[in-house]
Design goal:
This protein has 68 residues and is an alpha+beta fold. It has one helix at 45-55; strands at 27-29, 40-42. It is 16% helix and 9% strand.
Length: 68
């Protein structure tokens, strides 16, 4: 699986709250279990955490995780 790393534009918005990510402490997240789709950018860990909670992304995943 390969990905291309690029810097987001200066006006990139947080996927959760819509704030400009570079006004804060930005985080880039990519789902590489599904063809490494487009990255999501979050302005801080709080927005990333809220997104994970609201989408239920941590539900039942720890028991099924595999390093492959």
């Amino acid at each position: 699986m390969s990905t291309t790393i690029s810097t987001p534009t200066a006006d990139e918005e947080c996927a959760y709250c819509g704030c400009a990510i570079f006004d804060h402490d930005p985080i880039c997240v990519r789902d590489c279990t599904d063809d490494c789709g487009s990255p999501l950018y979050f302005c801080n860990y709080g927005c990333l955490s809220a997104h994970i909670d609201e989408e239920g992304l941590a539900t039942d995943t720890t028991c099924e995780w595999s390093p492959e």
